[in-house]
Structures are given as C-alpha cells and as structure tokens.
Design brief:
By secondary structure, the protein is an alpha/beta fold. The two termini are 26 Å apart. The protein is 33% helix and 26% strand. The protein folds into 2 domains: 246 residues, P-loop containing nucleotide triphosphate hydrolases (Rossmann fold, 3-Layer(aba) Sandwich); 59 residues, 2-Layer Sandwich (Alpha-Beta Plaits), CATH 3.30.70. The strands form 3 sheets. It has a 6-stranded mixed β-sheet, with helices on both faces. A 4-stranded antiparallel β-sheet has the order 11-12-10-13, with helices on one face. The protein has a 3-stranded antiparallel β-sheet with strand order 2-1-4. The protein contains 12 helices and 13 strands. The longest helix is centred in the middle third of the chain and has 16 residues.
C-alpha cells in the first residue's frame, strides 16, 4: 500500500542554517501520525514543504505519490490544512471565510457540515476576521477543515488558543474523520493530545527524525515504573538485571525496570510476598524527553558543524494570501 506521505532525506536550508537535514517521514493511509518536536526542530518547515509552500533543497517528498511543488493544486483539492497561527481576511466574516475555503476545495458549503460545526465550536460566523480572538480564528480554520470529507488532514498546532472544552470538540471531530478513513498528520506541543489521538509518532530533532513508531513500540524500548508494597523485608534488588532508580522505604519499594528485567524483578519481589504492585508504562512526555536526552550528544556534534537550529521565518508564512493557494 502506498504511503499517503513519503519523505526521504528531506533537506531545506535558509542560508547557512539547515532547517531540515535529511528528515525521513512516512504516514500510512488512514492513520493519525503524531509529529513531535520543540520549536526549531523542523516540523513547520516540513509541513510547508509538503504543502508546496516551500521548495526543498534535497531529498524527496511525496503526497498521494505526487510532488508537492509541481502538483500542489491537485494535492490541495484532497487535503485540508490548519496552521497554528491562523490569519484571516480582515474584512470577511468568519462564515464567508469558511465558505471561501470550502469552495477552494470544490465543496459546496450548503451540502457540508458547516452549520453543525459552527454550533459545536460555539463560533459566531457573523463577525469579521479583524474582530476575532486567536482562539476564534483557530475555530474558523478548524470548521473549514472538518466541514467536508478529505483524504488528508495536515494539522500544525491546531488547538493553539483553544480552551479545554474546545480541545475536546476538536478531538471528537478528529476521531470522526479517522473513522471515515482520513489520514492525519498532527503536529503538536501538547503531548497528552498526541498520546490520546495518534496511532504512530515521529519525534524530530534539529531537522532529523530521531525516533518513530507506535506508542507501544516506543514504550517497549523504555523502562516501566514499578511500585510495590511487600509483606516481608525488601530483598536486595541491586543485583537484579535491568533495575534502576531503586528507592526503598520500610517494606515499600519503587524502581524503574527495563522490559527484559521485568520477570527477574517480579520473581525477587514475589519471594518476599507482594501485598500490592503497580507497573506503569512511560508516558509520551517521558519518551519525548528521553529521546532528546539520548540524542543530545549527536545534536551537539551536529550543531558544531554550523547546521541545525531554528530557521528564520520566511516572509508571509501563514498569511491568508498563502492559505488561498488551497
């Protein structure tokens, strides 16, 4: 099956700064793919290359098997895009903007879910763009994206500016599109959001993918935290392979354990009599930080070459005029 998004060795430079330095990314049809990394990691630059807003300098990028730079019009008819900082036409109302964006995708607003979504997101569509707060500008873009079926949703920090209630509405709408078979590329700083919604995750650092896989696959590579209350004295666990961060207080013990050391730890604890035991897999936030710590040495060496770091913002990025290319 052909991947909806296929990126190999993608390179994008802004002068002497390499915003993307050989990035690989694959998003399978029908999956929600979390795209994680801090500011300057290359997430937004990657998305702009995939949308045909930037021309990459090396490697390859394909969306629906097509070149985003040369086939942007055809690609954009099959996708919806929501940036993290939405700029609207100041003299158009929110409703007019939504209708315009839908028509650019060859969708008749009257036959879409526009009105229902306006109600769900509690948006006043009669206000002009200049009167909207950041959160309401975000709602306009989300309503336009979710109002009609599409093959691909490209979401770059889509819940920026939304309150928790609207974040829940967003999650529900995303789940509905996923159930309909829509592929989603979700870039976000909200790790709990990605953890709840994503099927697979790619973590990027300095323009390169440093980890990719399902959450279960990533968790398999990391330590679980074990907390136990024992009936007898705590045995000496220092010699148990794979046990780390050991803390003992009376007959209570807590530690982290590598997957391959779990059986040995449980055997040692069982010999002392277990009254209660909890084993907690690492959260996505812990995986994210662990990956970055593990890659720190490589990143330092890479940074010494004068590459990496955040690219300068290109003129007009995210403006309505650029959005209109959809």
């Amino acid at each position: 099956m052909t991947d909806t998004i296929a990126v190999e060795g993608l390179v994008k430079r802004f002068g002497r700064v390499a915003a993307l330095d050989g990035l690989d990314l694959r998003v399978a049809p029908g999956e929600v793919h979390g795209f994680l990394g801090p500011n300057g990691a290359g997430k937004s630059t990657t998305i702009r290359c995939l949308l045909g807003l930037l021309r990459h300098d090396g490697g390859s990028a394909r969306v629906f098997g097509k070149d985003p730079w040369h086939d942007a019009v055809e690609i954009h008819r099959r996708l919806a895009y929501v940036p993290g900082d939405v700029a609207l036409w100041p003299n158009l109302s929110g409703g007019e903007t939504i209708d315009l964006l839908l028509r650019l995708r060859h969708v008749d607003p009257r036959g879409s879910r526009r009105d229902a979504l306006v109600e769900r997101f509690e948006l006043d569509p009669t206000k002009r763009g200049r009167a909207y707060s950041k959160g309401n500008r975000q709602k306009v873009a989300l309503v336009a994206a979710f109002a009609a079926p599409c093959d691909l949703l490209v979401l770059d920090e889509p819940t920026s500016g939304l309150d928790p209630l609207m974040e829940q509405v967003f999650a529900e709408c995303l789940a509905e599109h996923k159930a309909a078979g829509t592929t989603v590329l979700l870039s976000s700083h909200i790790l709990s959001e990605v953890e709840r919604l994503a099927d697979r995750v790619t973590i990027v650092r300095s323009g390169r993918a440093v980890e990719t896989g399902t959450l279960e696959e990533l968790r398999h590579l990391r330590r679980n935290r074990v907390v136990a209350e024992l009936a007898g004295p705590v045995p000496d666990l220092r010699g148990v392979p794979g046990v780390h961060d050991l803390a003992v207080e009376g007959r209570s013990v807590s530690c982290t354990v590598d997957p391959e050391g779990t059986n040995a730890l449980l055997t040692a604890l069982s010999a002392a009599g277990v009254r209660s035991l909890t084993s907690t897999p690492p959260r996505l936030e812990e995986l994210f930080l662990d990956v970055y710590r593990s890659a720190a040495a490589d990143g330092a060496a890479h940074g010494a070459t004068g590459t990496g770091g955040a690219p300068p913002t290109e003129p007009g990025a995210g403006r309505a005029s650029r959005t209109a290319r959809r």
